[in-house]
Specification:
The structure is a single chain. By secondary structure, the chain is an alpha+beta fold. 34% of the residues lie in helices and 27% in strands. It has one domain (16-212). The chain is built from five helices and ten strands; from the N terminus they run ββαααββαβαβββββ. Strands 6-7-8-9-5-10 form a six-stranded mixed sheet, covered by helices on one side. A two-stranded antiparallel sheet has the order 1-2. Residues 210-216 have low confidence and may be disordered.
Length: 216
Amino acid sequence: MKRPLCIYCGLRTGDTRDHAPPKCFFGSERPPNAITVPCCEACRRAGEKNETTIRNLLISFDQTETHPTVQSSLLGKRDRSFRHSVSEVRKLMAMMVDVDIISPGGIYLGRDKGFNLNQLLVHSFIERMSRALLYEEFQEPYFNGDFGWVLNPPMPDAVTSWMKDKLPGREMSNVFYYRITNQHATEPWWITMIFYGKVRVLARVRKGRARIVDGG
């Protein structure tokens, strides 16, 4: 049986499998419905070098540090990675910027540090996740395309319920959830990904010339 091409580069055969999301995103118990996709060894290694950094970033928000899986095992893993590798600390520190803090009522509360996710490694991770989910749901091989995304867009509960009932996707333990629109003619795919119950990414994937659009 002929092996499929790597879904990340489309150049080499998919001789190994890649996990989406990466295994390090989960606690001691891996989900029984884990997603694996065909990729080449070079692309697997290229993604693997940033997996811990992305996980550490996602679990370091105020909203996600209280998540049960984060509390029970991932914070300890994050802190150990910081102790063992100064470069991991530096990577996250390089993403921090001064931000204005505004209360829900619109009151200015001062300035604090926050993460700027408009980073190449974050863009690359979202593209990899988008490709993996499109392969999982529609067996979509590698293609040239535009990958744009926004963080935590406002989304009414009615829309969330409709997506859950009508669109393909799944929930993987309490760590990751996604839904994908079916592609219609020249319309893009819209992919909603939620990490640790709080970090929502809305990705827009359109076939065409390859580039990564500013995630803002």
